[in-house]
User: What shape does this take?
Amino acid sequence: MPKTTAGSTYQGQEPASLSSAEIAAELRALFDAAVDAIIVADRSGVIAEFNRAAERLFGYAADDVLGKPLTMLMPEPDRSLHDGYIESFLRTGEAKIIGIGREVQALRADGTTIPIALSVGEIEGGRERRFIGLIRDLSAQRAAEQEAHQLQNRLAHVGRISLMGEMAAGLAHELNQPLSAIVNYSQAGRRLGERDAPESTTLAECYEKITAQAMRAGHIIDKLRDFLRKDEPTKANLEINDLVLSTLQLVEADARADGIPIQTKLVDGLPPVAGDLIQLQQVLLNLTRNAVDAMRDSPGKDQGIMIATGFAGAGEVQVSVTDHGPGVAPQLVESIFLPFVTTKRQGLGVGLAISRTIIRAHNGELFCRRNPAGGAVFGFKLPAQEREESSG
Ligand SMILES: Nc1ncnc2c1ncn2[C@@H]1O[C@H](COP(=O)(O)OP(=O)(O)OP(=O)(O)O)[C@@H](O)[C@H]1O
Ligand SMILES: [Mg+2]
Assistant: This one.
């Protein structure tokens, strides 16, 4: 058992100083027992120490790297920039990484790169200045994050498919309208054509109406197809009012089938938000779908649903969906955003849980309030983005 000069000493034993050989042996053991990789380099960036964990992480034996430049462990562009970093630090004392720590890429012996957390300290007071780097492998953590991210997106996609399943009746109805109109105009056109001298203007009007109705039907199908696509989410600057308007057709199809009117109140001049249009549409649809469900048998049905946009707190914008249904059941208030919480016979209870996951991934907040006029207000807040200067 080694005795230490600092800290506690054992009762009944004389404190004794360690010889420098013993201190060196202790340090060596500590150095090699560390879970993190540790590398010591001199001021010209030559590797002077390389512990066991570093051997495992980089795939080199210490003997292969001692005396070699540190840059052999870095991929480009750090490799080319590194000597400049040390030189500028020694000259100005201004640290880019020392005492700060950050995530960088490491180059392993087999040529692969891995993400690492690197923190660097300076060893002062020796014969020359040396640097000590502590390195932690982040690949498992990054892989787990990546997997969680993919699962979230897959869940969101499954949520969209299930949402469309629920809305199928309303959508079928919505598609049926232009199709019936097309049939009517075609029949009218045929009757006109059977006349000896049909007026060309009325016939042209017929064709125009048929085209318009076919385009309307096509538009709904395009929206549906976009909505069900399985793309990786993107983060683009979006206008929150456009988000509402682009979802309105699907929302209205759903609400109209139940005879529930939808109104909008969109504030002009709102800053944009950063996000994925399809995923945010999905949240809005989940909220309006719930509002439709809540109002279907409610006496307040005629008052309809209000979708509003506006400023939230400082630097935030929001979208809210106000209904005049019965409001959220008191026993649900605490748990409403958790998965599989539902009061509906046909419900899975995942709409709000998926919505919250999406909104959190956008650094926003999903909220639920009581509507003072009776009913519920659900909505989400998102951080506002700087508007990009339009060029020209
Ligand atoms: N606007 C609302 N008014 C009253 N209650 C609501 C409202 N929105 C949601 N709820 C309540 O919250 C529960 C959970 O909603 P959520 O959207 O997560 O699941 P669901 O609608 O039941 O099922 P799913 O969305 O999976 O089809 C609902 O069952 C309902 O009881
Ligand atoms: Mg729902």
User: Anything to note?
Assistant: The longest helix spans residues 139-194.
